[in-house]
Fold this sequence. Notes:
Blueprint: E1 7-16, E2 19-21, E3 24-26, E4 29-41, H1 44-48, E5 59-64, E6 81-84, E7 87-96, E8 105-112
Antiparallel strand pairs: 1-4, 1-6, 2-3, 4-5, 5-8, 6-7, 7-8
Amino acid sequence: MALAFSQTYKVIRNNVGGTWSNGLYTKGATTEISIEGSVQPVNGEDLLNLPEAQRSKGVLKIFTDVKLYTVSTKNNFMADILEYKGDKYEVQEVKDYSDYFFSHYRAILTKVEDNIEKRKLN
């Protein structure tokens, strides 16, 4: 089911074969997928759910019927990266509404620098 006002966005997924060692991520295979979604501005409640250091970055939310992924050291996953208007946004939080009549996901995204693979996990 298509979401209202949706557009096509590119998502970069770095989850295949990556590893964590001493807080540093070694990148595995990268795949690119196209998703349909509706990007929206965040509200105050969305910002309060983010760590304080993330609140000053560019923050957006997207509604989509495709599950997006946050960082996971347990599963050796880097967060998905969504490209929006020439910038890259990292998935910080995902809410699953797939059990509802109108099945979808809501993700909160923060703007990141281009050299994301060089960042250290704290």
